[in-house]
Structure formats: C-alpha cells, structure tokens
Amino acid sequence: MGKNQPGYFGEFGGRYSPEILTEALEELESTYQKLKKSKKFKKELEFYLQNYVGRPSPLTYAERLTKHWGGARIWLKREDLNHTGAHKINNAIGQALIAKFMGKKRIIAETGAGQHGLATATVGAMFGMETVVYMGAVDVERQNLNAKKIEMLGAKILPVTAGEATLKEATSEAMRDWALNVSTTHYIVGSAIGPHPFPTIVRDLQSIIGKEAKSQFKKQNHKLPHAIVACVGGGSNAIGMFHAFLKDKHVAIYGAEAGGLGPKPGEHSATLTYGKTGFLHGTKTLIIQDEGGQIVPAHSVSAGLDYPGVGPEHAFLSQTKRVDYRMVTDEQALDSFLEVTRIEGIIPALETAHAFHVAREVAKDLGKKKDLIICLSGRGDKDVTEVLRLLGERSK
Amino acid sequence: MSKIKDLFNSGKFKSAFIPYFTLGDPNYNDSIEFGKTILDNGADILELGIPFSDPVADGPVIQRAVARSLKNKFSFDEIFRVTKEIHLHKQETPLVYLTYFNPIYHCGIQTFLDRAKEAGVVGLVIPDLPFDTKESETLFHELRKRDMDLIHLVTPASTKKRIESLKKTSTGFIYYVTSFGVTGERREFSVDLKERIRFLKDTIQLPICAGFGISTPEQANQIAGYADGIIIGSAIQRVIEENGQNSPKTKDVLADYISKIRASIT
C-alpha cells in the first residue's frame, strides 16, 4: 500500500495493524468491493434501512431555534429519529450484512457513549448473531442506560478497566479480541477510524445522511444550503454528513470537536486542533500525543467524543482546510444541550450539542436568509442522568 | 553483515533463546539490573520493549508491564541510557527493540535509529508496522544503511503470497507468531506449527524464531526441535511483576528461569 493507493486520504489512513489481522482486512476489502456492486446487497441494505431503521430521516426546519439565534435558517437532519436513537445504526446494519455475506457468526464492537454498542447489539439480536461489546468501565458507569439496554438485547458487555477505561481502551481490547477470533468474528468498527478498509466502509455506509439531506433540502428549497455542521469524535456522523457536499465548494462545512475543560493535555479531545500526525488503532492520523509519542488520555463531557484520535479523512479535510473544525468546551456543549431542549423540544445527545454550539456561531456569521443544516446525530436520553449530575455540580 | 546473521551463522547453539522484557518496569534503573541478569544466564539475543501506551498486539501481562513503566516519566534519553548500560555489560549479545511505530515516528526515524545504534541495538521488531507500507520501506532502507535488521512478524493467518512478498524487505530473523491473538502464556499451540515453520524456512532464507505463548522449558524444548529460536516475553514479565522491585529475589528467580529455558533448548 502506498500514499496514492486506496485507503489513504492524502498522507492519512492506510493499514497499520498487527500482521494477524491483515488477511481478514484484505478479505473484508475484497468482499466489500464486490458487495458494493451487488444488487442483492444494495437491495437488502435498503430494505433494512427503510423498514427497520426508519429511513429516510426527516429534515426538520427549526423555526424556534432560527428565531432564537436570529441568524441563518436552521435545518436539522434528524438521525435522532433512527431506531436506537442515533446515526450509528446505519453503519451497524451495513456491517452486519457484510459479516453475514462473509459467513461470520459472531460480531464484536467497541463503544464510547454506548450508541454504537446499542446499534450493534440491536443488529446482533435481529440477525441472531453472537454479540460482544467492549466498553470502558468509566463509560459503563456514565452511560449506564445504554449499557443496560445492550445487555437486555442479549449482547455481552465486557467492561475494560485498563488505562483511562474509556473509548481508546475499549477499541484496543476489541482489536485484541478480533486478533484471537478473526476467522469466526467480524469487528464492527463504530467510527470512521481503524485500518483500511474501515474508514471507507463506515464513510460509505454513513454517507446516506448527507445524500438524503442534500436531496431533501433541494426538493424543498431548489438550491443547496450555505453551510453544514456536525460533531466530530472519530467522526462517522460528520463524514457521513459532509461527504455528499465536499465537491460543492460554495457549501461551507464545519466540524465541532470536544474542547473539554481547556487546552491542557488530558483536558480535551480536540485532535484536529492539538493533534500531531501519528499511528493509532491501525491508521495514520492526527493524534493527541506527548513528546515521547505516547497517546495522551482524552477528555470530553460526551463519552462519544472522548477519543484522542480522529478518522483519517477528517485529518485530511482539516489539512486541506475544506472543513473548518472548531473546539467547543464542555460548558458550551452543556449550555447548547439545554438551549436546544427548551427552545426546540428536542433533547440532543451531548455529542450533538457540540455541533449546536458551532452552528449558533455560524448562523450569526451567515446572517438572515441563509441556510444551515446541522446533523442531529443522536438523541440525548442516554445523557439525562449525567446532565443532571453536571447541573447539580454547577449549582454548587 | 548484520550481527544477528553472524550469530545464527556461528553455530553456537541449536536454537537461539530470545527473552523479552519491557524497559522501565518498575523503573529504568531496575531494568539495567534485570537486563544484566538475563544476559548472564543465557540470552542469545535480548529483546527490549520500549513502552507504548496502546499496545494492541500485547496481552494482559505485557499491558500491565507497560502501564507500570509509563508511571515513570517516559523519555527517549532514559530508554537509550538504559539500553547502553545493558549493552556494555555483554557487548557480544545482540540487542533488538520491540516497540510500536508511533514512538519511533514521533522521535523521527533518523534520530531514533542513530541513537538506537549508538546504544547498541542491532534490530527492530514493530508489531503494528506491516511490511507493505511506505513507512516500512523507508525504515528498511535506513536500517540497511546502518547494518541493522528489520525483523518482520509472520502469523498463522499470513498467506503464502504475503510471505513470498515480504522476503525482499526482511532481514535478521523472522518472528513467527505461534498462535492467533495477542502475547501471553498458552497451554497449546496450533497443530500445524511445525509444518508452518518448515514452510517458512523453505520460503524465506532466514532463521525462523517462534514467539507468543511459550512459557515452560518443555514447550521451549519441543518448539526448538524445529524452530531456529524461541522468544519468551510474558512469562519473563510475570516474574518481574510477581517478585517486585529489584529485590535480590527477582534477580534470582529470573536467573533460574532463564538458565532453565536455555538448558532446555541446547
């Protein structure tokens, strides 16, 4: 594999994983290339997306938020209305089908906020596959409702206690499981990260978000929006939203990453702002690391953004400046969470709340009569307990 | 000619013993003592682990060793200082580093290799750097310039085609991963281990050393019947973990274990 070969986005991407996984990754790549062209696969995927996930998800005009912010017209791409409550199901369904076509009976996943774990447990139940979900022990605690749902669906949760006991460690542990069980198991990577072909597969499966948003907006307004916004941890909802618009140069694209508590190492997950080029979990990308090349633990109020790396395509889009990535602090995200809930009657995920903060800034800059679409990547039911706890701390 | 090639050509042993331990566990100065003890009791090549925060190819024992090591402040200065001390203790024993690619890349490939060579290191094993990447090619050429080796891993899942194509950029020896999964002690090995190692030997004209899962003298003896070398990591790291910091006991247990393994494969 070389710089200009598939799997690279500029200098980022590639396949930097233990040798034991190479054969499985090559098999996955060739299967996926075939399935992409297969009418049967496409039909089956479409069937489940329509009849199980509930696609297309609506594009909602947010009238109250538009008035409240006093700038551009706000539109919401409603991934929160998908079955299981987030965009993660688009990818989980697609990859479970790929696993089925490959004859694999067991699926595993890593999860931070629990949304990808929940989506994987759901498709595992539906397709009757043995499912194991790796989740950091800290995340099992702060996303307890999702952890309970995952178990209720019949999947096994394996809490990971190493290191910071969050998404990074869960990802490492899932990779180790895959290395041991590679012949029987498919690893459903949950974000646009990991060794090639995962970032491409996840992007393709999530790109339905942007495709739908584009055609829905065009149908209603006979033009393209002026700007789009999504939150970025690993970046799967964002790349899914962005992809259909990347070539439309006049559409401004914004990503919101977790600025956490502040700029000090260990206090944030702002990879695109503070990261340096490196190698983590099988891919070359931007990573938050120290002077010894050790990965620095990330922090975010949202478990789903709490990852010190980022999908390689985002690293590339940041380098080429096609996307403007901005940081949002925990406090700002929490404020946006409450604002959107009260003004629009939609409880967004804490991850998505980061996108709302950037959207508010962008809406003001754009001014009236312009249009802005926000990818509402998931709903915030899972975050209610944590938000109440944070509000309790704030009032002290 | 590389030091490793010389060693395997020397006919000094039937099968080489290649122990591994993580530098900095529990601290850098103790690592020097552990390294010396291992060298004195029969290592033919010594593999030194440079800790990395996210060792995806390693099992729980080595993960814990890395975590203990990283409780000390990680610095390349310390890594190279300790390596040099170990090297000076017994200069004829080749030292190789096992680490993940990110620290090397972050240090800068040229700087890293110059300093590693200066500290006495003659080869590298990098579990997350596949041979068919641009970075691996660069590294290979830089290593050749310095008479150092790039030791590739081959696994039970590696296809014949892949094995054929890694020949071009492989030197020193082949690190044959005996089983699926990560590092760690195991009771059984895959049934076709012997055949796979034979096939590798016939395909790649390099010594084939087996690692991942070996811990007892009996296992070492059995595998040494058909492999050119035995690599042991987790079992050694467990001795360090169980016996604590630089106690005379740790060194005694290490010495005893290393000499037993060495004797079992002679």
UniProtKB/TrEMBL annotation, chain A:
Q: Any keyword Amino-acid biosynthesis? A: yes
Enzyme class per UniProt: lyase
Entries under InterPro entries matching the protein: Trp_synth_b_CS (IPR006653), Trp_synth_beta (IPR006654), Trp_synth_beta/beta-like (IPR023026), TrpB-like_PALP (IPR001926), TrpB-like_PALP_sf (IPR036052)
Task: Name the catalysed reactions.
Answer: (1S,2R)-1-C-(indol-3-yl)glycerol 3-phosphate + L-serine = D-glyceraldehyde 3-phosphate + L-tryptophan + H2O
Thylakoid in keyword set: no
- Give the EC number(s) under which this enzyme is classified: 4.2.1.20
At the top level, the lineage of the source is Bacteria
Instruction: Write out the pathway annotation from the protein's UniProt entry.
Output: Amino-acid biosynthesis; L-tryptophan biosynthesis; L-tryptophan from chorismate: step 5/5
- Please give the residue positions where the record annotates the modification N6-(pyridoxal phosphate)lysine: K88
**Residue ranges of domain Tryptophan synthase beta chain-like PALP in the record:** 54-378
PROSITE patterns (alphabetical): TRP_SYNTHASE_BETA
Q: Which Pfam families is this protein grouped with?
A: PALP
Molecular function via GO: tryptophan synthase activity
Keywords in UniProt for this one?
A: Amino-acid biosynthesis, Aromatic amino acid biosynthesis, Lyase, Pyridoxal phosphate, Tryptophan biosynthesis
Annotated Gene Ontology cellular component terms: cytoplasm
Q: Which residues form a coiled coil?
A: none
Could you say which cofactors this protein requires? Answer: pyridoxal 5'-phosphate
Function recorded in the entry = The beta subunit is responsible for the synthesis of L-tryptophan from indole and L-serine.
Question: Quaternary state and partners of this protein?
Answer: Tetramer of two alpha and two beta chains.
Q: Which family does it belong to?
A: Belongs to the TrpB family.
Protein name, entry field: Tryptophan synthase beta chain
- Identify the species of origin: Leptospira bouyouniensis
TrEMBL record, chain B:
Per the record, GO CC terms?
cytosol
In which pathway is this protein known to take part? Amino-acid biosynthesis; L-tryptophan biosynthesis; L-tryptophan from chorismate: step 5/5
- Give the enzyme class: lyase
Q: Name one Pfam family in it.
A: Trp_syntA
Q: Which reaction(s) are listed as its catalytic activity?
A: (1S,2R)-1-C-(indol-3-yl)glycerol 3-phosphate + L-serine = D-glyceraldehyde 3-phosphate + L-tryptophan + H2O
- Keywords of this protein's UniProt record, alphabetized? Amino-acid biosynthesis, Aromatic amino acid biosynthesis, Lyase, Tryptophan biosynthesis
Q: What are the positions of the active site?
A: E47, D58
Q: Look up the domain of life of the source.
A: Bacteria
**EC number(s) on file:** 4.2.1.20
What PANTHER family does this protein's entry cite? Answer: TRYPTOPHAN SYNTHASE ALPHA CHAIN, CHLOROPLASTIC, TRYPTOPHAN SYNTHASE, ALPHA CHAIN
**HAMAP family xrefs:** Trp_synth_alpha
Self-association or partners: how does it assemble?
Answer: Tetramer of two alpha and two beta chains.
What is the recorded function of this protein according to its Swiss-Prot or TrEMBL entry?
Answer: The alpha subunit is responsible for the aldol cleavage of indoleglycerol phosphate to indole and glyceraldehyde 3-phosphate.
Regarding protein family, the annotation reads: Belongs to the TrpA family.
Task: Tell me what this protein is called.
Answer: Tryptophan synthase alpha chain
Organism whose genome encodes this protein: Leptospira bouyouniensis
What gene, per UniProt, encodes this protein?
trpA
